[in-house]
Amino acid sequence: MTGVPTGARGAVRGRGAVRRRSSRPRGGSPEVGTAPRPFGRGSGIPWLYLAPALVVLGGLLVYPVYQLGLISFLEYTQAQVSGGEPTTFQGFGNYAELFGDSEFWRVLSATVVFAAACVVSTLAVGCALAVLLTRVRAVPRLVLMLAALGAWATPAVTGSTVWLLLFDADFGPVNRMLGLGDHSWTYGRYSAFLLVLLEVVWCSFPFVMVTVYAGIRAVPSEVLEAAALDGASQWRIWRSVLAPMLRPILVVVTIQSVIWDFKVFTQIYVMTNGGGIAGQNLVLNVYAYQKAFASSQYSLGSAIGVVMLLILLAVTLVYLRLLRRQGEEL
User: Fold this and answer.
1) What is the rounded distance in angstroms from the CA atom of residue 51 to the CA atom of residue 56?
2) 220 by DSSP, 3-state: which?
3) Longest dimension (CA), the chain
């Protein structure tokens, strides 16, 4: 710095010091661009918070599933339960006997068709009413919400009994209004399945309606207004705007509906008196109950339960994988 006056040197040093000081964060805060360290990384603190829930899930889910799978590989009937005969290992013998039974395949196909019809009907009714809730005023919306939640809160046994009274051949008001006389809805196979389907949809659609309605309310109103200004109909708005934006929510309600409707038991058992005439309205859950408790073939009933569990896991995993291939994030 030769030839530079002393005062100028001080000014230069002062500006340099100011620049150096200004480049440092005030108050010891981290520099810009450095990410804060996540809480608990590398430690077991998060697992300590999750431990109570994991213990409960292990006791209520993991251990029963383990026992179910174990019994399905054993010869376990009333003789073994009472101690009259020793328990023997059968391997896959119970599954071979189950898959070789033509009645099992008939019940399985009926269960798949019935569950698919219930899921589609529940989603259609729930989504339609969710859209309706966004179109009506506050008072009708409140009445519809309370009525739907009342149906949802009704126990399955109570709801099934009420529907049987409504469609009773002698005293039911439905036959009188439709002029069907003494028509028995539970006598025919398809009419009985239809009656159970209506009851399942009645007690299941509130969950879909409330969930989808909450998702619709979260959609920006500007998006819907722009679609309406472009001349899109209500069906086009739902199909091209709302449904893609609500896809994560629709995935959740679809998987829940598949699980619930595939393992329907109470409605079928109560409304068809244990599976209908000659077992014409059996589904897998009722079929497993009959094998395990009515026939005391606990190992076969457990094998049916394992098959149901594997089917539901496969359906859920395939559905999630297809969504991931389409680039959807849940």
Assistant:
1) 9
2) coil
3) 118
